[in-house]
Design a protein that fits this description.
With about 210 residues, the protein is mainly alpha-helical. It has seven helices and no strands.
Length: about 210
């Protein structure tokens, strides 16, 4: 009898909409960061726009957590919802931190490999957003997490090349440390996007 009553309680599907909103916000921040690196002007203003997007992302994360604590029947396991929204939030934190470092370190010009990293970042955010848009059609998720994993591998290659070029070049030691801070931040954002895809893969397998 209790199980029969439980089926009469509708699931709150708004979580899927919130995940997509988070992903679109992250994609907007990644686009803004790529523009900052590609057209290196008005750096402080662009970093401020990314900071604003990060604050909006925090509000979305808090909304997911609030609903998670109040909704009786959720479309996914509580732990999966928590992990997914937290990992999405981490991606945005790394993007915002990388943008902020251009300002804090007073970077005169970005390195070419940073543009390549930003390109991978934007593609990976798009793949994650497209994956979240197909939820809860779990059988359609595989192409999206596979694409994110492929892009993360591309990002690793760009990262290794960037670090090698950085230490192989004729740069001042302080500049090397500043640039590596940003390179590491961009790599961290891409890595966290792969973590998001891992969560999506686990969810799909659980609902197969």
């Amino acid at each position: 009898m209790p199980r029969w009553r439980l089926r009469l309680v509708p699931r709150d599907e708004s979580f899927f909409e919130l995940f997509v909103r988070q992903a679109r916000n992250i994609e907007a921040a990644a686009d803004e960061l790529r523009e900052l690196i590609s057209d290196y002007r008005d750096v402080e203003a662009r970093a401020a726009r990314i900071r604003h997007l990060e604050h909006e992302g925090d509000e979305m994360t808090h909304e997911v957590m609030r609903r998670l604590n109040t909704v009786f029947v959720t479309p996914l396991d509580h732990e999966d919802i928590h992990k997914l929204t937290s990992t999405l939030d981490d991606v945005l934190d790394h993007i915002e931190a990388a943008a902020d470092l251009f300002v804090l370190h007073k970077i005169e010009a970005p390195l070419p490999d940073m543009k390549a990293q930003a390109d991978v970042l934007v593609q990976a955010t798009r793949a994650v957003r497209e994956g979240l848009e197909v939820l809860p059609r779990y059988s359609q998720l595989a192409p999206h997490w596979i694409e994110v994993n492929r892009l993360e591998n591309d990002g690793d290659r760009v990262y290794r090349r960037a670090v090698a070029d950085l230490f192989d070049g004729d740069h001042r030691a302080l500049d090397v440390l500043k640039w590596k801070d940003i390179i590491d931040g961009l790599e961290a954002a891409i890595d966290r996007l792969e973590d998001v895809s891992d969560v999506l893969e686990a969810i799909a397998l659980k609902h197969a």
